[in-house]
Structure formats: structure tokens, C-alpha cells
Amino acid sequence: MQFRQTALDGVLIVEPRVFGDSRGFFLECWRADRFAAAGIRTSFVQENQSRSARGTLRGLHYQEPKAQGKLVRTIRGTIFDVAVDIRVGSSTFGRWLGVELSEENHLQLWVPPGFAHGFCTLSAEADVAYLTTEFYTPEAEQVIAWNDPALGITWPLQSPTLSPRDRQARPLSEMGVLPAWAVR
Questions:
Q1: Rounded to whole angstroms, how far apart are CA atoms 179 and 166?
Q2: 44-97 tens-digit pLDDT
Q3: CATH at 12
Q4: pLDDT at 179 over 90
Q5: Percentage of residues in the chain with pLDDT exceeding 70?
Q6: Structural domains of the chain, count
Q7: Which of 25, 68, 97, 132 is the most buried (most CB within 10 A)?
């Protein structure tokens, strides 16, 4: 398992070792000791899975309070996955990272607490699974507009399919509740 640093402090691309043969493949998605050695010392409390049709965009979501860390992977299909630093006081506040996660590349994205998260589906359908470090808390969920011009995210689609909640999202500058940056 390899952990690749990104331009956003704490966000990692995880590349598991894949063992394949004529029967298929095997890989470890999560292993506490290896993640701890990479600086991710956490326990997960919930696993979620979604299926989305091509052109669907989910996000940009975060919880505050009860910020969630997320370990995201694509089981089937291909997505463009995005993490946005929304930690007040961080040197990379408002910056984003996008990475393609697919059933072929087996990459995972570690999105630590304090980041907004979203993705769009590039394949006909995509099944996405993610572990979280906090339970889903509806009253703590916040949504930032996917197309906030101040963020300037380069999404690989023009007119996504959005949920009613995501259509009502506001720009980052209008979010009243944001996580504070903490020195690790």
C-alpha cells in the first residue's frame, strides 16, 4: 500500500497493492497499522455506499460540528472525486484537489475532517463506498455550491444532475459554520 501526499495538507491518495490472476483480484482497502504509519490514526464508525448515473454530482458536503474524515473508493465505474480545504486558518483554505477514482485504478482518497467532499460520475454508473470517522448527523450537514466561482473547481462536466439540497447550496463565503484549522 502506497500513500501519496497531495498539495493539500492531510489529503492522501491511497494506492493499494493489487494481487490479480485469472480468477480476479484481491486488495486490502483498509489496514489500521499501515494507515497509522502514514499518519492516519483513526477509527471508522460508518460505511456508506451510493450508486450514481453518469452526470450526477454529489456535493460539496461537510459536517460541522462532528466533522467527518472519509476514505473514498469506487467499486464500479469511474468518478472525479474532489476535496476542498475549508479549515479556517489553513494555508490552503479554499484550495481543492480532484482525482479520478475507478474500478480499474483501485485508488482511494483520504479526505480528513475539515474538508468538503464531492464527486461526479464519469461512467454510465458508479458505485462509491466510503468509510467515515463520525456518524452522519443531518443537523450538522452543510453544503457548498459545486460551482462556487471563488473555488474554481474544474469539473469534467457542464450541467450535472443535482439533488434538491445540492441545488440550494451556497458559496463558501456564505457558509456560517466552518471547521477551524488545528496544527497536527
A1: 20
A2: 999 999 999 999 999 999 999 999 999 999 999 999 999 999 999 999 999 999
A3: 2.60.120.10
A4: no
A5: 98
A6: 1
A7: 68
Q: Is the pTM of this model over 0.90?
A: yes
Q: How far is CA 173 from CA 21, 88, 147, in A?
A: 50, 11, 13
Contact 79, 125 (CB under 8 A): no
In the set 61, 62, 106, 117, the catalytic residue is: 61
Residue 13 within a domain: yes
For residue 93, the enclosing domain spans: 2-18+42-174
Q: Which residues have CB under 8 Å from 112's CB, separation 6+?
A: 10, 11, 40, 69
Answer whether residue 79 is part of any domain.
yes
Q: Of the residues 62, 106, 117, 130, which is catalytic?
A: 130
CA gap 19, 28 in Å, rounded: 10
Establish whether 62 is a catalytic residue: no
Give catalytic status of residue 136 as yes or no: no
